[in-house]
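Dear colleagues,

As part of the handover before I leave the project, I'm documenting each prediction I ran so the next person doesn't have to rerun anything. This entry is a single chain, and its sequence is reproduced below.
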Amino acid sequence: MGKLAVQKYFSLMMLIITFLLMIFTFVGLYGGNVPPAGNAARAMLVYALPILILGNIVFLIYWLVLRKFHWMIMPLITILCCIPYTGTLYKFGSLDESADSKPGIKLVTYNVARFSLETSGFMAQDILSEMKKQKVDIVCFQEYSDFAGDKKNSDSYKEYFPYHAQGQSDMMIYSRYPITNSKNIKFEMTNNSAMWAEINVNDNIYRVYNVHLETTGLNSTLRRATKMANNGLEVQNNALINAIYGNYTLGMIARSGQANMLAMDMRESNHPIIVCGDFNDVPYSYVYNTMLGDKIDGFKECGSGFMHTFRGGKKMVRIDYIFHDKELEGLSYYKKDLSYSDHYPVFMKIATK
């Protein structure tokens, strides 16, 4: 085979890869529009979108360097179509430094990982100090624990947050404004749950949802695989892949059902809705789209820079969110780099009437 034939063959392979990248990226962009049950492979591509977009950028540069401008169109169009997705991860601009001085309520969602089972109450107190510092009005805790030795964290929080609503054992909403009503929402066959509290802020009622959806189960699968290998048991690659794929699939299906249940509950509200919580899912997924509905993603509205909310290992993903109804207006949205949990707390200031 001559040199020219080799070059043509290589160019053909690059063209095929470019085309496949474009197809997979578009499938990923719209993978969150269908329920994961029966569409697991399509739904899984949503998780690969950052890698797929990076691949398109590489091939855009590749065809640009070769001056193959007609082939460059494929990755260029694909990247342009991904702009709304990248807006859920990165927001140009800076935060409104004057937001705290404007009328409104500040909320935070925070998965505190049971305060690392710390018994002295030190960690819970440090988090309370940060809430005071940030002038928070409403806190939505997931994986909350009320016990710190022989004391209750709720006893120490009530001085600053005089009102609270307890959900399932690990769900809590604290508020500086009166809570007029609340409801627990239990999911079947899981320890995860959700709740809401209707809060009276200057004679205006807001329904605040606190949500903790099904976990992925990936870490437990990897731990089991590591344990098997350490015990001298052979771990087949395909078996491990099937286990990971199976866990993710089951998690996606469970979360989608939980999201559908919450979306139906939200339709019954007669008050403006604010949704806070740990969704255990990424932007553009079916869960994200279902929970968002016709509401506004606070980060896209008034966030700044790169947003990831999970700090465990090297998985820089955004899985904690604050959404709100369109009739409300966001003023600021940010996270704090606190090390008390494997999640970062997410803060949002919302203007009030």
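The CA atoms of residues 36 and 252 lie 6 Å apart. The longest helix spans residues 237-267.

All the best with the project,
I.
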